[in-house]
Amino acid sequence: MTAVQLPELPFSLEPTGPDGGWTYENGVLTGLAGAEQDRFVPPGGDAVEPATDAPRLLGAAPEGDFQLIARVRVGFEAAFDAGVLYLHVGEREWAKLCLELSPELPTICTVVTRGQSDDVNSAVVEGDTHWLRLTRSGGAFAFHASADGERWTFVRVFTLGTEQERAAARIGFLVQSPTGKGCEVAFDRIAFRPTAPGDLRDGS
C-alpha cells in the first residue's frame, strides 16, 4: 500500500515500519500486525533502539488544534494485542493510545516515549471495540476514550518535543502483537476535527 487519502482525513497517510497489509474499504481501515511486533522502548534498559517495531499508517497533521477519532476493533488473541492511535514528533519522541489486551482484559492503555517509554493502564473496558481520540490543544496533546463516541473519558494530557517538532507532528494508526502470532485491527467511524474540545475533562 502506497500513500492513501482517506475521505475522512484532510491529509494523506503513508505506511511506516513493517508491512501492515493496510486496506481501506467502505469506511473501514484494517491493519495486520505480524508476530511479536511492537513499538516500545523499555524504561531503564540500555538498548539504544527498541527490539521490535510495529506497522504504522501516518500523515502530517494540519497546523493548529485538532481531534483524530476512530472506533477501534481488535481481534484479540494474545497478551498486549492492540489497536492504537499514534502520535510521532521525533524518532524517540512518540505516544500511543491503545485498546489493548492487558494482559487478560481489554484495557485502555497509554505509552509516552521520551527516549524511553512509560506504560500506563487506565481502565478496563467491555468487549473488543472502543472509541479512541487523540487531541492537540495548543502546546499539549490529550488522550480520551469512549464507549459510544459521545461521552468521552479523559485519559491523559502531556507534551512532547520542541515547539517546532510538535507543529510538525505526524498522526495516525498502529497495530501491534508483542507476544502473539499476529493481530488484525479495524478502525472505523474515523473523523478529524480542526478544533480541540473546550474542556478536556468535562466529557465533551
Distance between the termini: 35 Å
If classified by CATH, what would the architecture be?
Sandwich
Give the oligomeric state. Answer: single chain
Q: Compute the number of structural domains.
A: 1
CATH third-tier fold name: Jelly Rolls
Briefly characterize the structure.
The protein is an all-beta fold and 204 residues long. Helix content is 2%, strand content 50%. It contains 1 helix and 15 strands; from the N terminus they run βββββββββββββαββ.
Structure description:
InterPro entries: ConA-like_dom_sf, DUF1349. This is DUF1349 domain-containing protein. By secondary structure, the chain is mostly beta strands. It has one domain: Jelly Rolls (Sandwich), CATH 2.60.120. Strands 1, 4, 6, 7, 8, 9, 10 and 14 form an 8-stranded antiparallel beta sheet that branches. Strands 2-3-15-5-11-12-13 form a 7-stranded antiparallel beta sheet, with no helix packed on it.
Keywords, separated by commas or semicolons:
204 residues, Jelly Rolls, 15 strands, 2% helix
What layout of secondary structure does this protein have?
Layout: E1 14-16, E2 23-25, E3 28-34, E4 56-60, E5 66-74, E6 82-90, E7 93-101, E8 106-114, E9 116-117, E10 120-124, E11 129-137, E12 140-146, E13 153-158, H1 163-167, E14 170-176, E15 182-193
Antiparallel strand pairs: 1-4, 2-3, 3-15, 4-14, 5-11, 5-15, 6-7, 6-14, 7-8, 8-9, 8-10, 11-12, 12-13
